[in-house]
Amino acid sequence: MMERHNFPGVFPVHCSRPFVAVVLAACCAPYPVSAGVKIVPLWPGVPPGSAGITETEKVVERGDGKRVVDRSIHDVHRPTLTIHQPDQRPSRPLAALVICPGGGLTRIVIDKEGNDLARFLAPHGIVGVVLKFRTARTTGHFYGMGPMEADVRRAIRMVRARAKEWQIDPNKVGVFGFSAGGILAGSAATRHEPGNPRQSDPVMRHPTRPDFFAAAYPLLTMKTEVAGSHYQQLLFGKVPTAKQLADHSCDLNVTRRTPPSFLAHARDDRGVLVDNTLLFATACRKAGVSCTTFIRDKGGHGYGVRDLGTPINKWRFAFVDWLKQHKLTTPAVKR
Fold first, then answer.
1. Is residue 301 part of a domain?
2. Can you tell me the distance from the alpha carbon of 248 to that of 185, in angstroms, rounded to the nearest whole number?
3. Is the Cα dihedral 164, 34, 69, 267 positive or negative?
């Protein structure tokens, strides 16, 4: 099914039409909200699989660009990480969360489903790391699942490789997925790669298994009756194989090594069905993996961390409580 989003940002805004800005990838930086925000390239030079692509990255501002920043980024070929660090140095290393925004696998909703969550978690001592990844399809190029998965794996590795510099505990690195970004985060949680200490690239010496996994209204399965053919073809082409669909159905790949998980979903979600969360939670129970779900009847899809007055919008507070229970927060970090 096609992913649907509510376009306003954190606060209501009236805009006659979105403002579109076209910029080079190197200049396309998320809006700097504080001195503690830094942006770094994910790959040195041209990422593997992106050589020869000259498409220009595009940004669509769906808010007013000032009071409400709600950008959708298209045609990403140079992935980045946006690191939200506390303005004041913490007394000890903090947990980090690699955030994979949604966007239907064709764009990155980087504020509403990325930077907004990082800012919300910052006072609780979580370093939010927003991943601007290569989407399955761009205007003129098909990437599929491979480069996307490579991007999220490298993001986790890089956070661990630069943990000391970014004041992060390398043993408390989690991954979060919104909507279609859930398939990235879920794949990271269920399809791990070990580190290779012999690698010349120090980033590749670190493992990709996250220490915890969380998601909101996530796409997690490729089962046709749940995902439909649209997402399958976006990720694997016109004729996906049974192996491709099974390998990237997160519910089919849960093992005892899947990290503790937290999932939020509304039952009336028509963009990404709640069955994605239910199937994953059931698989976790069978494998003996801790999985907490926050499911409510009303709320729809695409709300991010905003409070739209529906029951599901309290998920963010339940998530903070879950982080506290797992000793991942460091309260009273001053900003």
1. yes
2. 11
3. positive
The number of beta carbons lying within 10 Å of the beta carbon of residue 318 is 14
pLDDT in tens, the chain (335 residues): 333 333 233 323 333 344 444 433 333 333 334 558 999 999 999 999 999 999 999 999 998 878 888 999 999 999 999 999 887 778 899 999 999 999 999 999 999 999 999 999 999 999 999 999 999 999 999 999 999 999 999 999 999 999 999 999 999 999 999 999 999 999 999 999 999 999 899 999 999 999 999 999 999 999 999 999 999 999 999 999 999 999 999 999 999 999 999 999 999 999 999 999 999 999 999 999 999 999 999 999 999 999 999 999 999 999 999 999 999 997 644 44
Question: Could you tell me if 317 and 329 are in contact, meaning their C-beta atoms sit under 8 angstroms apart?
Answer: no
Q: Structural domain of residue 159, as residue ranges?
A: 19-325
Residue with tokens 């039409």: 17
Domain count of the fold of the chain = 1
Question: Which pTM does this prediction carry?
Answer: 0.89
Please state whether beta strands 168-178 and 212-216 pair in parallel, antiparallel, or not at all (unpaired).
parallel
- The runs of H, that is alpha helices, within the chain are 116-121, 145-161, 182-190, 224-236, 242-247, 275-287, 315-325
333 lies in some domain:
no
* Helical pair 182-190 and 145-161, crossing angle rounded to 10 deg: 70
The answer to the question of residue 50 being in a domain is yes
For residue 332, is it within any domain?
no
Distance CA 325, CA 196 (A): 32
